[in-house]
Amino acid sequence: MIRFYYHPTPNPIKVALFLEEAGLPYEAVPVDTSKGEQHRPAFRKINPNGKLPAIVDTDGPGSQNARVFDSTAILLYLAEKTDRFLGTAVDRPELLSWLMFLGTGLGPFSGQAVHFQYAAPDGLDYAVNRYRREIERHYQVLNDHLENRSFIVGDDYTIADMSAWGWLDRAPRIMKGADTPLVRWPNLTRFMALMNARPAVARARAVMTTHIFKTEMDEHALRALYPSNFPA
Fold first, then answer.
1. From the CB of residue 11, how many other CB atoms can be counted at a distance below 10 Å?
2. Taking burial as the number of CB atoms within 10 A of a residue's CB, which of 140, 151, 159, 180 is the most buried?
3. Within a 13 Å sphere around the CA of 52, how many CA atoms are in the beta-carbon half?
4. GST C-terminal domain: which residues (predicted)?
């Protein structure tokens, strides 16, 4: 059994998508980050970094409980555990390269773009521009790569596609003020239409709606989400 700790944000929904695609038995455990539940000692034992997602596999290696945190690590772990969505052996270098591109580039820059557009104090125009331009650059790199391709790696659907989908799905929020945020990148638009047609995508979205999370961005939420901004 997989215990899947989540908040309804881009990185956890990637893992929900894998679990639904693979048909693995799992328990979805909500962790409300706006309430600071990610900082509780019990959760820090699962992820010392206090971030979502995380999983505990009660049937890990040697039949021991295995904790895994960070969405890229979780996708790799589950793909290797099930031997699914990894592509071929020949695809492995490309798979790892694109997973790192997404996990260290597109994801973090998207998160920072959201932060500086919605949560940071007014007047930080340089930071807003910096992260928006980097998102656009990452979108272009991926758009160019997807020319005449259905999937990111090889000829089949892999965890790289799941990883990309998680953040591209939030383009309307990341590209604040854009009515059609991916219109400049037709291959990304086509890719997202292909992904959104998968039945497991609808099931993964449904998982994110099974718990009511705090939405008020009050001082308690700001302290929970950005503790380094509030020195003790």
1. 22
2. 159
3. 28
4. 88-228
| Residue type, position 132, single letter | R
Cβ–Cβ under 8 Å, residues 54 and 47: yes
What secondary structure letter does DSSP report for 30?
E
Beta bridge partners of 28: 4
Please tell me the distance from the alpha carbon of residue 177 to that of residue 18, in angstroms, as a whole number.
Answer: 31
> Against a cut of 0.85, is the pTM above it?
yes
Return phi, psi of residue 70, to 5°: 85, 130
DSSP designation for 70: S
Q: Considering the chain, what percentage of its residues have pLDDT values greater than 70?
A: 100
CB 31 within 8 A of CB 52: yes
Using CA atoms, how far residue 151 sits from 14, 107, 156, in Å, is 16, 18, 6
Q: What is the DSSP string of 125-160?
A: HHHHHHHHHHHHHHHHHHHHHTTT-SSSSTTS--HH
CB 164 within 8 A of CB 138: no
Alpha-carbon span 1 to 128, nearest angstrom: 42
114-139: per-residue pLDDT in tens?
Answer: 999 999 999 999 999 999 999 999 99
User: Which domains are delineated in the chain?
Assistant: 2-84+204-229 (3.40.30.10), 92-197 (1.20.1050.10)
**154-185 residue pLDDT tens:** 999 999 999 999 999 999 999 999 889 999 99
8 Å CB contact between 166 and 10: yes
